[in-house]
Amino acid sequence: MTAFKTIGVVGAGMMGSEIALEFALAGYPTFLSDQNRAAAERAIERLQGVIDRGIARNFWSAEAAEAVRRNLAAVDNLEADADRDLVVEAVFEDEALKRSVFERLDAILAPEAGIASNTSSLSITSLSAAVSDERRCRFLGAHFFSPVSRMRLVEVIATADTDPAFADDVAAILTAIGKTPIRVKDVVGFAVNSPLHALVIESIRLVEEGVCSPADIDAAYKLGLGHPIGPFELMDNTANSLSQSVHEILYKAYGERFLLRQMVAAGYNGRKGGRGWHRYDKDGKRL
């Protein structure tokens, strides 16, 4: 058994709901919260499709759906997380929003409870300033990758104040739910997103210069480099607006090699909107 018995996840978007799903599948009683309970309940309903696909591909056993029903619940507000041992924050990639969540959690949670941020690029040390000095030893980053139900990697990012034993406990529960944690220094972009988005930006420049189409570059990375998904498919699946947010964060830290605006400004936000770097039908299937 791990040091944590009960889990809370804040943010019922694609990332947060699938993070909650992974904990519930592994047998941990898990609360999922969002701006209101209805949003969290809708997210749990959407997860049924993820479960059905996982069972069809023999990724999970037939008991998976029952495990989720037993262990995953939508809650009204953050106050419901007061008895949670570990709370994972997975709200939009906005520092002010995340800080407000951490401030509230810090006031609600028991002193021994821990907080993990799923930020993909923000400084964990900077975010930890939103909690009390006493809580900072039990605060770190736990960056999951999309789609969480398929991707095994989780970056574990400690600050100078993080208790090494707490980081070990978080790594242990991630292993228990089938993930592979790696330890990463607290630098903007961590180990994956900094080089990944350099690749993405260079791919966008190739399209802007007419060297290749998005479809050709996606094919090149999959067939030539063995990537499971191309950079434009990845942006469409996770939303171009999220990529833009990450690029802006990296731009502030590292300079002009990170920048994306035009697609988002044009409303081409990806699969959910019907058009991103590729076009999709009403069911989200690529045309």
Amount of helix: 40-55%
Strand content: 5-15%
Assembly state of the chains shown: single chain
Q: According to CATH, what is the topology of the largest domain? A: Rossmann fold
Structure, described:
By secondary structure, this protein is α/β, with parallel strands linked by helices. Helix content is 44%, strand content 12%. The protein contains eleven helices and eight strands. It is globular, with a radius of gyration of 19 Å. The termini are far apart.
Question: Could you provide a short overview of the structure?
Answer:
The chain has 287 residues and is α/β, with parallel strands linked by helices.
Question: What keyword list fits this structure?
Answer:
287 residues; alpha/beta; 2 domains; N-(1-d-carboxylethyl)-l-norvaline Dehydrogenase, domain 2; Rossmann fold; eight-stranded mixed β-sheet
List strands and helices in order, with pairings.
Elements: E1 7-10, H1 14-25, E2 30-33, H2 37-56, H3 64-71, E3 72-74, E4 86-89, H4 95-108, E5 114-117, H5 124-128, E6 139-144, E7 153-157, H6 164-176, E8 180-184, H7 193-208, H8 214-224, H9 231-238, H10 240-254, H11 262-265
Parallel strand pairs: 1-2, 1-4, 2-3, 4-5, 5-6, 7-8
Antiparallel strand pairs: 6-7
Helix pairs in contact: 1-2, 1-3, 9-10
